[in-house]
Structures are given as structure tokens and as C-alpha cells.
Design goal:
The protein is an alpha+beta fold and about 150 residues long. Helices cover about 45% and strands about 15% of the residues.
Length: about 150
């Protein structure tokens, strides 16, 4: 069945459709990184070169160390449990970072600030809000969890 879907996609859109999709997804990673830097309360360990972005929320006066790592873990857990976003965490240089992979073909640049606001709110409160449907997910490139 998968080969039929691939054939139909190639027949309808040609190889350019897939090339455009990959190029667009890779271009959105650096753009999201720019948006996080512009926000002022996020840091990135490296400039994104593709569709994978590592970042963490660093509120003013947060310091460094285990408390900041715990903040990232709370933000991720709240976003994951809510079902709005799928974000993973990773360790780099002994610190906890959040990681997103932009892969959804419906992804747009709008409205990424909602992810930033949600991550900040959830990290501070640790609260979990009501489930968000895929159609209303604030930043659609992060695949919503399936019920």
C-alpha cells in the first residue's frame, strides 16, 4: 500500500514536490531558531542547520545547573501530556535541552510564538491544560499526540 501512495505522489507532483518539501522543512529549522533567539529568554547551543532545533528556556535570574534542567523537564512533560506538541529532551554537555524536528508538511511559520509562550507558562507552573486537537495545535510542525 505504501508503494501506491509513493507512486501517486510522484505521478501527481513529480520529484519537485518532494524536493520542495525537504527544502522547506530544512529552511524552517533555522527560522525557528532565529525566533527563539529574538525572544530573548531562550538559548540555543548551536545554530540550526536543518529541521532539528535544540533549545531551552532561560528566564531572567534562572541561573544555571540542575534547577534550569528541571525547568526544561517540566516544560516538556506539560507540553507532552497536554498533547499539543511532541517535543523530546536530550542531554548535551551535561545539560538538559528540548528538541523539535520539523517534519509535518503542513507546518508554517505562524504562529510559532505560541509554542514559546506555552513552554514558558508550563515550565513555570508545571500545570497541564486540556488536550488540544491537531487542527488547533499552535505550531503544527510538532506532531500532536494521537488520542
Amino acid at each position: 500500500m505504501m508503494s501506491l501512495k509513493l507512486y501517486a505522489g510522484l505521478a501527481l507532483g513529480g520529484t519537485g514536490l518532494f524536493s520542495d518539501y525537504v527544502t522547506r522543512a530544512f529552511d524552517l529549522g533555522p527560522r525557528f531558531g532565529e525566533m527563539l533567539r529574538e525572544a530573548g529568554d531562550f538559548e540555543l547551543p548551536v545554530d540550526p542547520a536543518c529541521n532539528i532545533v535544540l533549545f531551552r528556556h532561560v528566564p531572567e535570574g534562572a541561573g544555571d545547573g540542575e534547577g534550569l534542567d528541571a525547568l526544561q523537564e517540566r516544560a516538556r512533560r506539560a507540553l507532552r501530556d497536554d498533547g499539543s506538541f511532541y517535543i523530546v529532551q536530550t542531554r548535551l554537555a551535561g545539560r538538559t535541552w528540548l528538541r523539535v524536528t520539523i517534519i509535518n508538511p503542513l507546518t508554517t511559520e505562524e504562529p510559532p510564538p505560541s509554542l514559546r509562550r506555552r513552554a514558558v507558562r508550563d515550565a513555570r507552573s508545571g500545570n497541564v491544560t486540556a488536550r488540544t486537537s491537531a487542527a488547533r495545535a499552535p505550531w503544527r510542525y510538532i506532531a500532536p499526540r494521537r488520542p
